[in-house]
Design goal:
Blueprint: E1 9-13, H1 14-18, E2 37-38, H2 40-49, H3 54-63, E3 64-66, E4 78-80, H4 98-103, H5 110-114, E5 117-122, E6 125-130, H6 135-142, E7 150-153, E8 165-167, H7 174-177, H8 179-190, H9 197-211, H10 228-240, H11 243-252, H12 260-274, H13 282-297, H14 302-338, H15 347-366, H16 370-375, H17 380-403, H18 406-419, H19 423-427
Parallel strand pairs: 1-6, 5-8
Antiparallel strand pairs: 1-7, 2-4, 3-4, 5-6
Helix pairs in contact: 6-17, 8-10, 8-14, 9-10, 9-11, 9-15, 12-15, 12-18, 14-15, 14-17, 15-17
Amino acid sequence: MKADHTTREVRLPRYLDRFRCTGTACEFDCCTGWSVDLDREAYLRIQRAMEGSEAERAEFREGVKRHPAAKATPTKFALTVLRPRGPCFFLDDARLCTLQARYGEPALSRTCANYPRNVRAIGARIEVSATPSCPEIARQLLLHADANDRVTTTLDRVPRPLADVVVAANEADAYRAALDVARDAMLAVLLERRFPLSVRLAALGCAAEETRGWFQRGARGALSEGGEVQGRVGAVFDSFATPTLLARLARELPQVGDRDDLTSGIVMSFLAAGLVQERVGLTELFAQIAHGYAERDGATGPADVLRAYVARRDRWTARFAERIDGYFTNWAVNYVVNAWYVTEQDLVDYGTRLFVRVATLRFLFFSHPLLDRAEALDDDEARAALLDRAAVDAVQRYTRGIEHSVALVGRLDAMVRARASSIAHALFLLEL
């Protein structure tokens, strides 16, 4: 989708407006751990750039592999090759891209040129957000209260302003047409910071349940902003954003029942399934976490780990509740802005997907070995600095290890839906 540089409104969050790539100073470069799919145009562009000598042609043949003809598509035509231990074939010893150094930014694929940005379009508006698999994006997102404030800018801030996902101005599917209304209503709930994030997420889950059966893919209804479907879904979420209802949820949520087996089972299964293969960064962190629970707490099984985790979580939230809630509020807001609900069948599926990710990230954060170092300190400011580092590290390692594999994410989400078969089950995750 070609973007009109003169007439299109462009929005991005403040964390991305502040973002500047740290280059070789980055603790996890963006060129290690995953192959990049190339569309046909990018494949041919790199091939043309590397036709100057036989050495370059040989390098191209070694570093770029076409998908088999039966599986190739125009958007997934080829992929870059990884060297042993994970770096891109075209990454040099200084952790810089040799394609860009030799042929300039135009030689890069759209994925490489735009990363960590995601570009989407709603009618005439372009929205740009980013993935926190980039450590610097994770820092800017998690550690600033105004990280998700909207900023209006111009398309020259986006190297390749072509939208990956498009919601047209004249969508016939009312589920898609209501994106602005429904998403803004969900964000209004998430931004009620007077209440803990678990309460706000519970309100989202209850509101999603209220829309089951009539707000889903293929929904029909009036398409004007004040139309039937938009008005109805907006009213549902507005009713759950009231302080009275949120206060009631805050009283009732701790009483939902014995959640331990379901909660720990879903999160542990989610992580274990994602770690069947080596995941750069995440596999190492999970091994450190498992070792910590075994050596420090004598935990020998999931139930022991959960008990040790809860005690650890409660110690830290007693002292740093607002700070920790801020990390995951910012992450959840970015998720709603960045991962559009229109990719899911309905808002219940979308809510379940959101809940399991928040629960998994909280488990990784509270279990992080940096918190062991923080416990040994006497100064709260120094402790807070280590908490910030742990949050950034957990989020970027998880995102890099899990969310960048579309096929893996699809399998994991199917597993979660099978185990958390209702929104009531999914609500158990909010207390992890």
